[in-house]
Amino acid sequence: MPELRYIRAINQALADALEADPSVILLGEDVSAAGGAFGATRGLRDRFGAERVIDTPISEAALAGAAVGAALSGLKPVLEIMFMDFTTLVMDALVNQAAKARFMFGGQRSVPLVVRTPHGGGLSAGPQHSQCLEAWFAHVPGLKVVCPADPASAYGLLRAAIADPDPVIVVENKALYATKAEVPEVLEPLPIGRAAVIRPGRDLTLVSYGGAVHTCTAAAGILANEGIEAEVVDLRSLQPWDEATVMNSLSRTHRLIVVHEAVEAFGIGAEIAARMADIGFDELDAPILRIGAPFMPVPFSKALERKYLPSADAVVQAARKVLA
Amino acid sequence: MTSSHQAALGENQMLKLYADMLLIRRVEERLGRLFADGEVPGFIHLSIGQEAVPVGVMSALTADDTIASTHRGHGHAIAKGMPLDGFFAELLGCEQGLCRGRGGSMHVADLSIGMLGANGIVGAGLSIALGSALAHQRLRRNAIAVAFFGDGALGEGLLHECLNLASLWRLPLLFVCENNGWSEFSPSAGQITFRLADLVPAYGIPYVASDGNDVVAVSTTAADIVAHVRREGPAVLECFTTRMRGHYEGDAQKYRDPAELEALAARDPIRIAKEYLRRLDVGEERLQDLLTDIDCRIEAAVAAARAGSAPDFETAKADTYTRVDMH
Question: How far is CA A312 from CA A28, A291, A309, in A?
């Protein structure tokens, strides 16, 4: 199997989508001539022209609103918001307009737009360039949210998002951009709303998404040395999320830990834990645990950030606790 | 300018503009009564006194052109051609409404005629129209987009972003400011330090102003500026007009000077349009027939809406998404 970098997978998904559908356009700050702040759109202007790969001023609010208007008028805009922290500036367009237009206009038209945006720490990018805000969007009826953990799913989920008739927020973990992994010879779109069991195990279930999936696989490796077999579920999609796959795993392992980089309080983990405590109550042999970042801004200093980010050790300790 | 406008419009054109305005007026007066009687739920914001703006602007548009409207959007919707049955049924919250009773007054939309929705967020229509104009341009349509906004939106930063982007990309976008002097319950003069006329030249795009209560002035100015937008790119049209009712129905308007409210009658756009018709020797009888016909159409639509059914909850919920594979 060939190897591909996460960022190249995104680039290829964008190229293939532009090739497949003439109504797809890319919009964003520095996406065209400069090829994107992280290089996700590199080379696309040369292939598809500045008419479809469009450099924009630093006007996030207007661009997101324009994406809604363009989507209602026949285009499929893919908007890059350079850091997820900047999505604070596009909230009206996404929450009040994009998410509701189909519903509040009586289903007259869908809003096929995609917002791509990187979240996550680990790069000392500081409090305003590191946040994981995906739970905000997952909380809004009308939006879909995906968060790929590896190159194949970065390709597959982005293709699916662009093909989807509804607004989709594609959250990319910027610490993963430079990572490489094996991918199938032929990359395919992946269905939104479907999780994957990426490591089978019988003793407990670790549910995660994005960068934290790798924290979980690292923890599972450590636990295996102790004879504990942890199953790792990569959610891939947060809204909708794959309740059936998580439930299926829980009904075999009877123990559940949800792990994410976003702050633990009021997060995706809280939703999954609450839902599984409800429908999975009879299967549980231990309380469901959550592991996320502490309730504080993402710090800058390496010394602080290292302690801030959920670690494989924390997952291992939690696993021992639910198995005790 | 008025005399040349008068010369430019014949009897049939003038009658059409008058009829379109009268339709909006009578629809909103009817809505006001339905609201007072408790038949229209929620909030409604009437545009009585501003009818010349949507009618004048829409007289310069084609069916392919798109508009994004405001919370005070009934006039835009009706002038663009929204069917009365679907309109009233929506405002009464029925399944037969254009938005199946999900949006109501503040979100009434008809995508099939290029009406991209009223909007509950001040200024939000600016960027939606911007995107629609971008689609027209990139898909090589001959259409333009129009963003209606009030002077209250002059305080929104989004206006600056949209003016800059429209100018940068030479988008077929007409900004129409309906300046009625009020930002909800406060005079805009106490909130906005600049004049749009002074701001717009900084973006390198044309600005024109019109008496927003004179439908002949609005329609002739709009014809010229719409032609420019279609040919060359964005422009701003500011229409100075009057909000004759409160911010919303039920607003006692204690913040308004009674003398100001009294003086509004002389500026009534329907009255001004009637003057034109009188000078064209259109008899009172014809105007009376027109009114009767409009009221009949309205009553038929109200009756149909009253006979409408309540929307189904599960159908509404299912429309949150076009398609969900899981859940």
Answer: 35, 10, 10
